Predict the structure.
Amino acid sequence: MRHEQRKNGEVDVVDAKDAMGRIEGLVRSLLEALGEDPDREGLLKTPHRVAKALCYLTNGYRKELGRVLNGAVFEEKYNEMVIVRDIDFYSLCEHHLLPFFGKCHVAYIPDGKIVGLSKIPRIVDLFARRLQVQERMTQQIAEALQDALNPLGVAVVCEARHMCMMMRGVQKQNSVMTTSTMLGEFSSRQSTRNEFLQLIRSPHEP
């Protein structure tokens, strides 16, 4: 079994079993450096569990947009705003390897093409499941949808809580970071942008 690991924009093919083994060794060394005994009962399987969890939490490196879409782009004469809101996401801050998590709201205005509904949350996960900063992730989601559909416009808003700010540092428990990317008509037309922002704030039935 092999997977792709991206480094500085380049793609290297790495054996997944080898990667797991290397991570397990590093976690064992980390436990020792923290003053723990990796051979005690409660920690015996921790290196394996951590390696497995990290591989899952960063599986966005091993996915490509084309495969995520899997042909689910359809010709359709529809040119009104399409919004998928409250998409849950979980990511890892690249500065401290601590989680940040929240909701993502995505909209686009079709120009002859629409995408299958489930593909938008999958695009969000494609970029969330990497070591990230929220600003870049928001931009990547918008640009991926723009590249896939070439719509009249794309808008993405992400709202997240960051454990690196809640658990350490300033320790502000109720702070929420909001980032946005507006492309096409969402950038050039204030009325379109305002409509989107109003719709993602409007009460709705679950």
Notes: The chain has eight helices and nine strands. Residues 1-13 have pLDDT under 50 and may be disordered.
